[in-house]
Write a structure and sequence with these properties.
about 200 residues; alpha+beta; GTP Cyclohydrolase I, domain 2; 2 domains; two-stranded antiparallel sheet
Amino acid sequence: MPFMDERAPGSQIPEAIRTLLVELGEDPDRAGLAGTPDRVRRTYAELTEGYHTDPDALLNGAAFDVDYDEMVVVRDMEFFSLCEHHLLPFFGKAHVGYLPRGRIIGLSKIPRVVDMYAHRLQVQERLTQQVAGFLMERLKPKGVACVVEATHLCTVMRGVRKQGATMVTSSMLGTFRADARTRSEFLTFIGRSSDR
């Protein structure tokens, strides 16, 4: 195992995984598992990198003053996250819209915002609110809408074992909350009806 500073984030994970493997009745030194503790450490570092993402560096000055006040929608952004209750993945698509107030954001930044919050231990409801809240705070638009649709492996693989279950959450801020027509337009753009 490579040397790691014991104070570094994640430095205790390999030993914890070795203990877990023993508790499961496995031999952590057998050929197939010998590198698993460090692989798990690297995996969790990647899956939780959102804790260490600097929002200002993520935006990198990519908010621009533009005389545009119609709806901007980015839909079908795939994401992966970890359920904080079981440490099992949940994954799906996020759809985000906003009504600019003379200020827009670079197209690639919205998926990066989704990933920043998805790459943390999460519940879907909080993820949805965090994405919408971040854009509302940083862009000061007339409103932000975020809809997240996801499959949770904690529901599919264990417990109720419902393979077809999909969870849908939304956060509507500003005009999207106050104006049913604006909300309906957004839902139409992302392929959802406001009356279902």
